[in-house]
Design goal:
The protein is mostly helical. The protein is 82% helix and 0% strand. It is built from 20 helices and no strands.
């Protein structure tokens, strides 16, 4: 049976739900753009504002302070006002932050603007995968939610090209005075597009049903799944909601507290294994291998392209192979490759393509596994009635870990050195492998309600055995 005929038999309107998912995933593009734009700008800002290692780290990591705040409030606000409305708010905050980051006269003004934009990024990073997961059919949920990570990577890759293009427009003096301003300011374009397109997408059907708008929820589910499957799914959603208190204490019941542990720990491990140290500081890392400014920017672009290609591969694999298998394979390759990078710096054997190749292996492994899958699992594993707030808890943990890595990385390079820093990332990648093997469940092909019931059954079994 062809893909098209199978979709028709299922009643799935994959074209509609894919378009809706693509619009929502532009929030991921903003995430990638805003977190990676600093990689090209920080070199010039360091000279403009005379930044030491500590202030350099603060200029990079202040975005995460805003993201922590945004993620912290995103769940509560989206559970109350809706996923769509809060995504629109995130778009406006991103635009304001982009404009403010382009205009500062002092580093303090820049930091405040980045924090505002970071609040928007925190909201969108929490809600985009959650929104897509709540509207997508179970059969295609993995690849559709992973469109968010694809958009993140496209944003990262695009800004690497933009940074290189802008940096080559003028003289070195112009770069220090103006180039970095344009790098930030051009973020207004995707931010404005995100706001406009969001006006045309529906609200999450699960949020609508929870707020007594079942007729509208049924209309959206029918458009996604066809009338027969829509009625079945709406009935499952209602049954699940009727069994839930809607109180955050639900997460601390037997079974569900394991879901909380999995969500929070995976979120932390996604960051502390070192990916954003590479993404934020790639030019600086390549300079340590002896590359010049232009060569380091070119190698950064290659890294971004590698990330994009393997994220596309992950999109194809994620609903075929499964979440857990990809996490295990990815973390294994991450462990080995980043440990060898540390050894290369330890021995001083960093000339030639060795470090670049190993970093490309690390980024590819991350892009196939922890990049998209952590956001997907965070959007899948929590109960419907408190999914927004529960996902926000995991997102806050993720952004705190991101802040810790981005703030400490330049300090670590200047204190303990590159070898010890990369070996630390290798150890944490090994921890990610062991944790995944021990506790992460497979959620491929299950509805959100089926995943939720599996946690409940786990809790019942734990209680009956006295654990």
């Amino acid at each position: 049976m062809s893909v098209l005929s199978r979709q028709q038999a299922e009643g799935t309107n994959l074209g509609f739900v894919t378009l809706v998912s693509i619009v929502a995933a532009i929030g991921g593009l903003l995430f990638g753009y805003d977190t990676a734009v600093i990689s090209g700008a920080i070199v010039f800002m360091q000279q403009k504002f005379h930044l030491g290692p500590g202030m350099q780290g603060w200029a990079v990591s202040c975005l995460m302070i805003g993201a922590i705040v945004g993620a912290g409030f995103a769940g509560f606000l989206s559970d109350r006002f809706g996923r769509k409305k809060m995504l629109i708010v995130a778009g406006f905050l991103f635009v304001i932050g982009s404009i403010g980051s382009a205009l500062p006269a002092t580093i303090t003004e820049f930091v405040w603007a980045r924090i505002v934009g970071g609040i928007g990024i925190g909201i969108s990073s929490t809600l985009v995968p959650l929104y897509i997961a709540e509207i997508a059919p179970a059969r295609h949920r993995g690849s559709l939610v992973s469109l968010n990570q694809l958009a993140v990577v496209i944003g990262i890759s695009a800004i690497y090209f933009v940074n290189m293009w802008v940096a080559n427009l003028g003289s070195p003096t112009w770069d220090i005075e103006s180039a970095w301003r344009w790098m930030f300011g051009l973020g207004v374009v995707p931010g404005g597009l995100f706001i406009i397109l969001l006006l045309f997408v529906p609200e999450s059907p699960r949020w609508l049903e929870r707020h007594g708008l079942g007729d509208r929820a049924l209309q959206i589910l029918t458009r996604v799944n066809g009338p027969t499957r829509a009625r079945v799914e709406l009935s499952e959603i209602r049954d699940t909601l009727n069994d839930e208190s809607g109180n955050i204490g639900l997460l601390f019941r037997p079974g569900f507290r394991v879901a909380l542990l999995v969500g929070v720990v995976l979120a932390i491990l996604q960051q502390v294994t070192g990916i954003n140290a590479i993404m934020y500081y790639a030019p600086e890392i390549f300079k340590q291998t002896g590359a010049g400014t232009n060569a380091s920017l070119i190698e950064t672009v290659i890294t971004g392209a590698d990330n994009l290609v393997f994220t596309l591969i992950s999109l194809w694999l994620i609903d075929r192979v499964g979440r857990k298998v990809l996490l295990l394979i990815g973390s294994a390759f991450m462990t080995v490759s980043i440990a060898i990078v540390g050894y290369a710096f330890y021995t001083g054997n960093t000339a030639g393509p060795l470090v670049l190749v190993l970093i490309l292996v690390f980024v590819a492994a991350f892009a196939v596994s922890f990049g998209p899958i952590v956001w997907l699992v965070m959007a899948e594993i929590f109960p419907t009635s408190i999914r927004g707030r529960a996902t926000a808890i995991a997102s806050v943990a993720l952004w705190i870990a991101d802040y810790a890595v981005s703030q400490s990385f330049p300090v670590l390079l200047n204190s303990v050195g590159a070898s010890s820093t990369f070996w630390t990332f290798g150890i944490l990648s090994l921890v990610a492998f062991i944790f995944t093997l021990a506790l992460v469940p497979e959620t491929k092909g299950k509805t959100l309600e089926e995943i939720e019931r599996s946690w409940g059954r786990r809790g019942t079994q734990s209680t009956s055995t006295g654990r």
